[in-house]
Amino acid sequence: MIWSHADRLRFDRIIETLEKNFSIEMGSSYTPFEVLISTILSQNTNRDNTTKAFERLKEQFKITPQELASADLEEIKRCIKPAGLYNAKARRIRKVARIIWEQYDGDLSKILNLPTSEARNMLLSLPGVGRKTADVVLSFCTNKGTFPVDTHINRIAKRLRWVEEKAGYEEIRHFFEDMVSEKQRKKVHLVLIEFGRKVCRAKNPHCKTCPIREDCQNENICQ
DNA sequence: CTCCGGCGAG
DNA sequence: CTCGCTGGAG
Question: Which first-to-last residue range defines the signal peptide (predicted)?
C-alpha cells in the first residue's frame, strides 16, 4: 500500500485527536520481568482479569526469575486463575522463569540489551512468548521499541483503512513502525488501546460520539 | 485450524 | 443462562 502525504497528515491528525480525548498513564515502575509475566497473563484476557491475576501472583511470590523458577506449579495456577487459560500460562511462566534464571543469570536485560531484532528473536524463543508479547516487552522496556499489535490495534487499523482487511501481524506492525517514531510508539499504542476499548469497540462501537468520525472512512460500522 | 478458561455484560 | 473478550502452541 502506498502512502501519500495526505494519508500521513490524516494519520497524524487522528492520533493527535485521540491523544486529546484519551488520557493514559505511562507510569509503571515495572521491571522488565514483571512486564513479561503480566503480558503472558494478559494473553486472551481482559484487563481486569489480568490485573487481578497479577496482583494475586505478586502476593504469593516475588515476581523474579529466581523465585518463580522454583515455585509450586499448582500454587501458580491458583494465583493466576482469574486470567483464565491458567494451566498453560502457569507452565509457561515457570518455564520462562527457569530459562531466564539458568541461561541469562536471572537477568532479562541481557536479552533486551541486544540489537532489536536479535532481542526480539530471543524473546520469541521463550515458551508462551509470541509476537505480541515480545513486542510489548520491547516497546515498554527499551527505547528501541517495536509496535505491538493486539486485537484492538488490528481492528482499528482495518476499520480506518490504514491496512488492508487481510493484513497480517507483521504487515500491521511495520505500518505503525513506519508511521510512528520510536519514542512515540508506547504512547500511541496505549492511546489506540484506550480508543479501542472505550469507543472503537469490537461490538457496538460508539461511532455517534467518536472523536474521529470525520476522519473514518468506514461507513458500515455505525448502528 | 483447534484448544485452552475465568469473568462480566447482556 | 450464553457468549465475546483476547494470543500462543501443537
Answer: none
3-state helix, strand, coil in chain A (%, to 5): 65, 0, 35
List of domains in chain A: 5-25+147-215 (1.10.1670.10), 32-141 (1.10.340.30)
Q: What is the pTM of this model?
A: 0.92
- Residue A74 confidence class, pLDDT cut points 50, 70, 90: very high
Cell of A53: 491475576
> What is the C-alpha separation between A96 and A213, in angstroms, rounded?
43
Task: List Cβ neighbours of A189 (8 Å cut-off, separation of 6 or more).
Answer: A139, A147, A148, A153, A176
* Residues whose CB falls within 8 Å of the CB of residue A81, separated by 6 or more in sequence, listed in order: A53, A56
Half-sphere exposure of A42 (CA within 13 A, CB side): 17
Instruction: Give the mean model confidence (pLDDT) for residues A204-219.
Output: 83
| Cβ A197 to strand B below 7 Å | no
